[in-house]
Amino acid sequence: MISPLTTTEMFCIGFVPISATVVTTWGLMAAMVGGAFLASRRLMLKPGSAQAFFELLFESVDSQIRDTMRVEPEPYRAFIGGLFVFIFVANWSSLIPGVEPPTAHLETDAALAFLVFLAVIFFGVRAGGLRGYLRTFASPSPVMIPLNFVESLTRAFSLLVRLFGNVMSGVFVIGIVLSLAGLLVPIPLMALDMLTGAVQAYIFAILAMVFIGGSIEAPTTNHPAEDAS
Amino acid sequence: MTFDWWTFGLQTINVLVLFWLLSRFFWRPVAGMIERRREQAQALLDDARAVRDAAAKALAEAKKRNAGFAEERELILQQARSEAAEAGRALLAQAEAEVAVLREQAAAARAKEHDEAEKAWSGRASRLAIEIAEKLVSRLDATAVREAFLQWLAEQIVALPSDARGKIVDGGGPLEITSAHVLTAEEQAHIHATIRAALGQAAGISTPEIVFRADAALIAGLELRTPHFVLNNSWRADLQRILAELQHD
After folding, report:
1. Based on CB atoms within 10 Å of each CB, which residue in A115, B42, B140, B201 is the most buried?
2. Domain span including residue A40
3. By CB neighbour count within 10 A (0-12 exposed, 13-18 middle, 19+ buried), where does B240 fall?
4. Residue B123 pLDDT more than 90?
5. Which residue ranges make up each domain of chain B?
6. Which residues of A touch B3 (CB under 8 A)?
7. How would residue A3 be classed by pLDDT, with cut points 50, 70 and 90?
8. pLDDT for A218 beyond 60
9. Contact yes or no for B225/B182 (Cβ under 8 A)
10. What residues of chain B lie within 8 A of the CB of A58, using their CB?
11. CATH top-level class for B141-248?
12. Which chain B residue's Cα is nearest to A84?
């Protein structure tokens, strides 16, 4: 069993080493983009079952954004929906024999958490300007500025650790059981791993929405005095 | 446990590219399709609303037209009723007039039939009376009967005013004695003498000429005809007088 804690280099492009995780991600990207391209070419006003499923996914993402962030979902749909779809597909890719999910590696989860960290800053600045975004660190009190600043780092780190821990542990457990018991025994654990993967994708997307929503909210709502000024 | 920064960087780029590609090939087309469906549904709703409004308008016009029809129908019915009543009255008047005419015609026909029947019965009664009289006369003594009638004629002449008797004498024409049977010469002479006596003329005085004629229709009797008047002295005259009195009654 290859440990998910190590990075396996497959080849190099110039001086850039390409790991197995990156290659797996490229394969998943090709599958998702290809499927999305085929699906988008067959969209009709009277949807079939596949189109109905995609529209259900679309409406679910929009509904979650609307309920969680209390804003129109269009500017955030691509980021939040992309996070959920990628993590979901990456987690479930462990069902394919020989494929190790990219989210079981620390670099992928770190990249996702880093993108959420940047997205919080980007959407916060775009919604309220740089000063508006910085004012969110002074919420509910300027005394909280250091804590809020640390929190912005730690919550991204918590995203990384949560996703990595759940997926990596699932891969580890299945690998160990598979090496010990062989056929059929790992199936319940694989089912549990599917559930864990779906739940982790949902949790990651929801937490990203919460963090972004917190950055685009007007911080003055908790400071009537600042509103008056 | 190691952390490969190259993998971290590549995965960051991969995820960003994936987000862009999904946005380009999935989220936007699906959003566009849902928006088109929403627009089409809205268009259908607008069309349905327009059709509903048009239907409501058409319904209102139909109701208005029906109300007009009802008024027009009521007007036509009233006109038809009045025309029918007028036509009925005219027909009734015409029928009454025709009935009156028919009644008059029936009354006239009935009166005519009554007159004709009365005439027929009178004729038959007259003929029956004549027949009866003829049968009765045939059983009587013809000489006695003729003598009796001669005496009655003489009495009638005597009862005449004197100027009337003078006109008999000087009438300027012959006297005509009509009897039911042809008279013999002796009978003619006897009648001549009796009439002369009734006229009051003495023997030797010229008397007007007397012409004797026979007429079976007299049944019995003698009738005197002058240029000025006639003395009916026969059963035919008596029967006609009786019949006239009966018919008069």
Report:
1. A115
2. 9-221
3. middle
4. no
5. 1-139, 141-248
6. 106-107, 110
7. low
8. no
9. no
10. 27, 30-31, 34
11. alpha beta
12. B19
Q: How far is A30 from chain B (nearest CA, A)?
A: 9
- Residue A4 included in any domain: no
Please identify among residues 21-80 of chain B the ones whose CB lies closer than 8 Å to any CB of chain A: 21-23, 25-27, 29-34, 36-37, 40
Structural domain tally of chain A? 1
Residues 6 or more apart in contact with residue A165 via CB below 8 angstroms: none
B103 interfaces chain A, CB cutoff of 8 Å: no
Name the most confidently modeled range: A50-54, A163-167, B18-22, B234-238.
Answer: B18-22
In a domain, A3, yes or no: no
pLDDT tens for residues A136-178? 888 788 888 889 889 889 999 998 999 899 888 888 888 888 8
Q: Which of B22, B30, B37 has its CB closest to that of A85? A: B22
Strand pairing category for B210-214 and B222-225: unpaired
Q: Judge: A82–B22 Cβ closer than 8 Å, yes or no.
A: yes
Do the domain assignments include residue A36?
yes
Instruction: State both tokens at A158.
Output: 């918590």
Query: A32–B18: do the CB atoms touch at under 8 Å?
Result: yes
The alpha helices in A70-182, defined as continuous H runs, are: 74-92, 106-135, 145-181
